[in-house]
């Protein structure tokens, strides 16, 4: 199939979007990505689109738009990396190939925590923070809380730091492997939240080409059938989670029962439960001390 993407130079933004959507659809791509790519390249909000969609598209935009569309189709390149940012829980966050692209399931977890946690945690730890979207989103909702975040990847941590600076949010960032990144004088936390690597290598055939080609594998895959990070956390969680504290993790949809058993054996007095995602699949583990 022809993967050329050649637009006339006299299009409105609306006409360009229509052509882009058709182009992506014809090549088996998500047509809605054309809209997100357009807004990202123009640095527009949805309100800008509604007021400017019938304006003549500038030639520089059309050139960049077609280049991005071709790369999405030819290379399966994510539109989020093309524009370098995503909208996540009411705010724009920078992203790059050094960190994962935030998923709707993660955004739903953040919304759930903000809507349901009472009292508001005073100290928050975001383990394996990546781009920082979880911890920084919580910080925007709870400005009086202290946020600490860690990641084993310094390039990913640099993205999180850039996001904190962009949002003007104070936070402490440490590079290292899980809790080992923390200095010894850090006090215990009221909330520890994490979206760690939890995918088994056996699941590679089920994953999209785009994810496998461009998102960092060290942020996706874990040993021991995807359970290695949770096993490490379970061994030392009580050293870092305060009395009455809450640990929350995003998990693989098949890992729920195994993880409930793992944390129940480690902390038999804790209250442990699972929360399901949009599809009714186990997606979050809660451990309440």
From TrEMBL:
GO BP annotation list: methylation
* UniProt-listed InterPro entries: DNA_methylase_N6_adenine_CS (IPR002052), HemK-like (IPR004556), N5-glutamine_MTase (IPR050320), RF_methyltr_PrmC (IPR019874), SAM-dependent_MTases_sf (IPR029063), Small_mtfrase_dom (IPR007848)
Q: Specify the protein name.
A: peptide chain release factor N(5)-glutamine methyltransferase
Stretches of the chain forming a coiled coil according to its record:
none
Instruction: Say yes or no: keyword Glycoprotein present.
Output: no
**TM region positions:** none
E.C. designation(s): 2.1.1.297
**Catalysed conversion reaction:** L-glutaminyl-[peptide chain release factor] + S-adenosyl-L-methionine = N(5)-methyl-L-glutaminyl-[peptide chain release factor] + S-adenosyl-L-homocysteine + H(+)
Keywords on record: Methyltransferase, S-adenosyl-L-methionine, Transferase
Q: Which GO terms describe its molecular function?
A: nucleic acid binding; peptide chain release factor N(5)-glutamine methyltransferase activity
């Amino acid at each position: 199939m022809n993967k050329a993407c050649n637009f006339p130079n006299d299009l409105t933004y609306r006409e360009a979007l229509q052509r882009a959507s058709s182009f992506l659809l014809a090549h088996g791509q998500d047509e809605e990505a054309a809209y997100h790519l357009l807004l990202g390249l123009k640095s527009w909000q949805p309100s800008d689109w509604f007021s400017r969609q019938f304006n003549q598209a500038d030639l520089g935009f059309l050139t960049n738009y077609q280049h991005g569309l071709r790369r999405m189709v030819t290379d399966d390149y994510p539109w989020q990396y093309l524009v370098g940012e995503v909208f996540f829980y009411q705010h724009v966050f920078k992203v790059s190939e050094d960190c994962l692209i935030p998923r709707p399931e993660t955004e739903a977890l953040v919304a759930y925590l903000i809507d349901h946690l009472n009292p508001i945690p005073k100290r928050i730890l975001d383990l394996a923070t990546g781009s920082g979207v979880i911890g920084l989103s919580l910080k925007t909702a709870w400005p009086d809380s202290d946020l600490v975040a860690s990641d084993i990847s310094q390039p990913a941590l640099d993205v999180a730091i850039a996001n904190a600076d962009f949002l003007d949010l104070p936070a402490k960032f440490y590079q290292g492997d899980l809790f080992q990144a923390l200095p010894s004088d850090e006090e215990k936390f009221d909330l520890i939240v994490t979206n760690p690597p939890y995918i088994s290598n056996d699941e590679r055939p089920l994953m999209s080409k785009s994810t496998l080609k461009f998102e960092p594998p060290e942020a996706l895959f874990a040993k021991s059938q995807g359970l290695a990070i949770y096993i490490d956390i379970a061994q030392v969680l009580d050293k870092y989670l305060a009395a009455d504290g809450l640990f929350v993790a995003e998990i693989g949809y098949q890992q729920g029962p195994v993880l409930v058993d793992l944390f129940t054996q480690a902390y038999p007095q804790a209250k442990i439960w699972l929360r399901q995602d949009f599809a009714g699949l186990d997606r979050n583990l809660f451990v309440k001390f």
